[in-house]
Design a protein that fits this description.
262 residues, 3-stranded antiparallel beta sheet
Amino acid sequence: MDTPRVLRLRLFLMLVACIFVTTVSSSVSEKCTVNKYRNVDGRCNNVHRPNWGAKNSPFLQVFLEVQNESHSTKWPEASDVAELLSRLSIAGNKHLTVMSGMWADFLRLDLAIENTTDNGVILNAATSFLDASPIYNNVSCEDSPIRVTVSEFGYLKLTPCTRSSNENSDYSTTIHNLLILEHNRLVEELRDINPDWSNNTVFEEARRITIAQLQHITYNEFIPNVIGHAMMTEWNLNPLKRGYYTGYSSSNQPGTMQSIFA
């Protein structure tokens, strides 16, 4: 498990990576239909550029301008940096428990899963949105510790994977279980309140609420405790207390940077 300081650094880099990158050129490859619910593969979040942030989109890349004189600079090896960091004394944090690492690992699976094509191109097999895709997008056992299927009545069913490349599978499975149980609890509540709803409507509404809860907990409770309220304010990450966000622009491209989640 990451130490509190390393967790802070990784989360900060994750936030920077997920800040929308402004771009102006893109072609529309498909038409989006009007739908109350988000697509599980992330398509059509932006109706003008349907594939932005969708499953199997390329990772975003950042190219920094390199000065000529920097070519002569000898940078330390990555292994040397890792060894140095491992020797640092890290103080504990009363606000962060083991559950913080579990939550962070689930967010990593939610935002970035490498998928290498036959010609060597590395794509993101997850959506670039915080949408609980590890339980709703049904990723492969290579990338997730569990498989999730949907019953005909809108419930989620959990099937443990016999193999997983995720080294923290036990930790991320904990959050998987919690969110699946919450989804199924919502299905029960919604069925009692709206007995006339179809199975699909019950499923989509429960999914919609579960995603909203995931986003709310992440931005209202998890992130402030990791990076601090001062940085939340500096980066304008605090959710609104009332009203709606008005800064949306269809030219802002959502995406995930590969190097941040390596």
